[in-house]
């Protein structure tokens, strides 16, 4: 997930480590906190694979005339995606299997880069995510039904709250799916093929 997000951000523009970490925090939201201890090893792996290159600053070059006081002599290393990195990123955004939607964290990152994803792939990912969440909803419903007599009312309310959250996600995904289909229709393109296993929304 981290390396995918790094490639996606660098695909938009070169960045130095601090800016990259800040942008990753926005992309990943509250899913996880990115430390330099995880960011730089990931960048090192991407560089070793040939997906990222670095622009090392010249430590002996004079500072710009407008540099603020006490500016450090060492500039920032800028990371740039390579042609191979762009190919790898496009390969990743073309994947529409369970790895793209079963994990909520990776699904969120994939959604953040949907503008780089083909319409039919976007639809398959959204439908796959909806199926996953619907399975979770059915599991929660069964759990609430079985445990209704054994749980105190506070624990039961907590489970109901979780069920309501899942219901909202199913409705949200259904709205996104409908929007994708309408956009395909309005563009005059052939509508993306729908997975035959996609169930009719029940929530």
- What is the CATH architecture descriptor of the domain at 2-56 and 77-93? Orthogonal Bundle
Order of helices and strands: HEHHEEHHHH
* CATH-derived topology of the domain at 2-56 and 77-93: Arc Repressor Mutant, subunit A
Helical proportion? 55-70%
SS-based class: mainly alpha
CATH class of the domain at 2-56 and 77-93: Mainly Alpha
Distance between the termini: 30 Å
Arrangement of strands in the largest sheet: 1-3-2
> What is the CA-atom radius of gyration, in angstroms?
22 Å
Written account of the structure:
The chain has a three-stranded antiparallel β-sheet with strand order 1-3-2. The protein has 203 residues and is mostly helical. Helix 1 packs across helix 4 and helix 6 (119-147) runs antiparallel to helix 7. Among the domains are: 2-56 and 77-93, Winged helix-like DNA-binding domain superfamily/Winged helix DNA-binding domain (Arc Repressor Mutant, subunit A); 120-186. It has helices spanning 2-12, 17-28, 36-48, 83-93, 104-112, 119-147, 153-186; strands at 15-16, 52-55, 78-81.
């Amino acid at each position: 997930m981290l390396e995918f997000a790094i490639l996606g951000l660098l695909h938009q523009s070169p960045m130095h480590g601090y800016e990259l970490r800040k942008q990753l925090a926005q992309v990943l939201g509250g899913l996880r906190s990115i430390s330099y201890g995880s960011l730089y090893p990931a960048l090192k792996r991407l560089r070793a694979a040939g997906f990222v290159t670095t622009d090392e600053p010249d430590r002996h070059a004079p500072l710009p005339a407008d540099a603020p006081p006490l500016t450090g002599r060492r500039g920032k290393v800028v990371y740039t995606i390579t042609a191979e990195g762009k190919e790898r990123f496009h390969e990743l955004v073309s994947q529409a299997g369970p790895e793209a939607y079963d994990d909520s964290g990776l699904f969120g990152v994939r959604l953040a880069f949907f503008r780089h994803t083909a319409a039919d792939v976007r639809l398959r990912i959204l439908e796959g995510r909806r199926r996953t969440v619907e399975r979770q909803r059915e599991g929660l419903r069964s759990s609430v039904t079985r445990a209704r007599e054994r749980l105190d009312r506070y624990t039961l309310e907590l489970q109901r709250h979780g069920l309501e959250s899942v219901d909202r996600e199913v409705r949200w995904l259904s709205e996104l799916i409908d929007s994708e289909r309408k956009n395909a229709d309005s563009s005059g393109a052939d509508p993306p093929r729908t997975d035959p296993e996609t169930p009719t929304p029940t929530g």
